[in-house]
Amino acid sequence: MPSPTASEADPLPSSPRRGSSARSGAAESGTGRGGGAHGGSSGQAGGARRGAARGGSSRGGTERRAKAERAARRRPSSRPPRDRGPRDHAALDARTARRRTLWRRTAGGVVAAAVVAGLVWLLGFSSVLDVTAVQVGGASPETLPAVRQAAAVPPGTSLVWLDTSELDARVQTIPRVATVDVRRSLPHTVTVTVTEREPVAAVPVGAGVALVDGTGFAYRTMPAPPAGIPRLVLGLGVAASPSDPTTVAAVRVLASLPADLRGKITELRAVSPYDVSFTLDAGRTVRWGADTDDARKAAVLGPLLSRPGSTYDVSTPDLPVVS
Fold it and tell me: Phi-psi region for residue 185, left (φ > 0), alpha (ψ -120 to 50) or beta?
């Protein structure tokens, strides 16, 4: 049996290939259409990815550059410093000078404070200047023990902190002392100089007399007046005192008289500040009157005593009377 020819054998199987080809073509055609759409979206996505990549790359580059700049600033520069010019150098020198001045003042203040603190401790609180001796001058043998007792300084008292006014007041309480002078003598001595009262009259008290000084202060009692001291007789019930006008007038009259005449007075009488008189050793009486124009009265009385008489009245110095 003769074998079929190629043209006879092909017709049956060729149809499926054509259908398959058609389908393939349709599929290819569909694929081409879908592929076109898919390809468009893919292209857009790729573009977005490339843009994002470029944006990320740009941000990363910026960050890298910032890090590099910070690292460069932290690294010491090997380049020599730039010359700032005369103006900048002058400002720098001025700042340096101000800092040095501030340090010097601070150091000087600290040193000065330390020196002052040391001196305060040395002079006021250490035993370097403690009082170890009290010297008394101007006191009579009778007054000296009382002055030493009043001027005693407690052991351990610093000469710097010694209250001289308080010591002065203690010594001033002694009746015979008129004035006191207290001085510090470095390094350990206190010097106390006193001036004792001098009697100008003697006021009868009890069985004796009280000595009165030039201020009218009665400071000491004795059995009898010392030689050359006149007896002072005051008004009834009047006690001698610097605050009593009659006493003050009497001692002022005595102070106005010349020393040779004052030594001849045996008794001084003062009934009031306006009635003062005295008796001389020869028994003559002088009426002085008020405690006024004392210098004028004393000048008139001297020549007047050369006249004979027993009473000499100078109460009115322009019209003296001798009787």
Answer: beta
8 A C-beta contact, residue 321 and residue 309:
no
Answer whether 0.70 is exceeded by the pTM: no
Q: Contact, 171 vs 151, CB < 8 A?
A: yes
86, amino acid identity: P
- Closest by CA to 272, choosing from 221, 220, 313, 235, is 235
For helices 294-304 and 245-256, angle between their N-to-C axes, nearest 10 degrees = 50
Handedness of CA 45, 46, 51, 54 (dihedral sign): positive
Contact 296, 312 (CB under 8 A): no
259 HSE (CA, 13 A, CB side): 0
One pLDDT digit (tens) per residue for the chain, 323 residues: 344 433 333 433 444 444 444 344 333 434 334 443 344 444 444 454 554 445 445 566 687 777 777 766 666 555 555 555 566 667 777 878 888 888 888 888 888 887 887 777 666 666 778 889 999 999 999 999 999 999 999 988 888 888 999 999 999 999 999 999 999 998 889 999 999 999 999 999 988 999 999 999 999 999 999 999 999 999 888 899 999 999 999 999 999 999 999 999 999 999 999 999 999 988 999 999 999 999 999 999 999 999 999 999 999 999 999 99
Pairing of strands 218-222, 133-137: unpaired
- Of 289, 262, 287, give the one whose Cα is nearest residue 273: 289
For 16, 79, 83, 90, 93, the CA distances from 86, given in Å and listed in that order, are: 102, 21, 9, 6, 10
Question: Token pair for residue 122?
Answer: 């040395």
Strands ordered across the beta sheet of 189-196: 133-137, 189-196, 177-185
